[in-house]
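Backbone geometry tokens:
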Amino acid sequence: MQGTVIDAFDGKPVDKVLVMLYDNLADTAVRKELPFYFSKTDPKGSFRIENVKSDTFRVFVLEDGNLNYRFDQVSERIGFIDVPIRSDDYLRAPIRIRFFREEAPLQLQSHEAGTPGLVKLVFNREPWDLKLGVPERVLFKETIKDTVFLWHEMADSSAWSLYLESSGPIDTLNIRPLTRPGNWDQLRLLQDKKAEPGSRSTHNPAGPIPIRMNFPITTVNLDSIQLWEDSIRLEDKNLRLDIDSLDRRTLQARFAWEESHTYRLVFLPGALQGWQGTGNDSLLLEYRIGRRNDYGSLHLNIDSLETEMSYAIELLQQDKVLRRFQIDPGQRKWETRLEGLSTGLYQLRLIEDPNGNGRWDPGRYDDKLQPERLLLWPIEQIRANWEVEANFVLRWE
């Protein structure tokens, strides 16, 4: 019996993992018993088991973290074939097994509520499936990797409760009243440290300029904001500063930006009102607008979709997800056009998304659920002042 083991997410071969055959066909055998036959994969992910008797076996692949030939640690990566197989049927036909780590149940590892107006929740993994029961005065929920920040405007003198759920109840937190420190009134709304004030950055003339702040923003007073084009102050500026609906720490500055010009945004004191009554001191931001011809565009087409399936689509550049799309069931073809892309190499990731949650999900052995299938397609290099036509046909191996 022979075959290959590949990583379910990136498709790369998996080396030095156990491929095990069990003549006990019970689901629990992989946790309680030693295998009847076993082998290890080579650097190409290939394995071969010689002299297998004619019988029915359960096939299981294991990254054996504690070297006991049993699946008994949630951190161990695994792979499996859904149903037992007859060895005679696979004497010449190779087996292909996708390898993955099961997603651990969501657990709250720690929480902090020592800053008035802010609760920090740290989980054992990215809390994409977290459900929160929160009061209406929670202003903004921000998730960064495995941590959730809840910016709120609850009264400092009142205790309140926070309910956490995933597939079931996780925890109930009782947030105690706090006393504001003496220097609280000195807090100021500032530009985020990752984008220092006064720094020049070049932006696409076709899109808004994102301005990220250190605290959530509640109101914007345009009368206290000046817009300068080169050395000229624009009086009839038609400037829009919208609080991002998905990220209340970010303003989207919209204007008919002229190519190859430099713009300055001057925020006078109090132009912005933020979380817990914070305001800004004087703030100067400067931006260089690029030329439209310096950017490229991309026309994406995907054919042969399964009409009963939903899909998640991701546009990547250097492993960073730039755009996400969701394809609902009922579509055989899908297309979109993207403009104002920086030059360079991109990839398109298609995820078969039967549960419609917009992300890739690994499998679960106990439910006999395989990891969601995905494909990664390279895209012709995006060049300045050029449109790339990228046509893909969905074919699974």
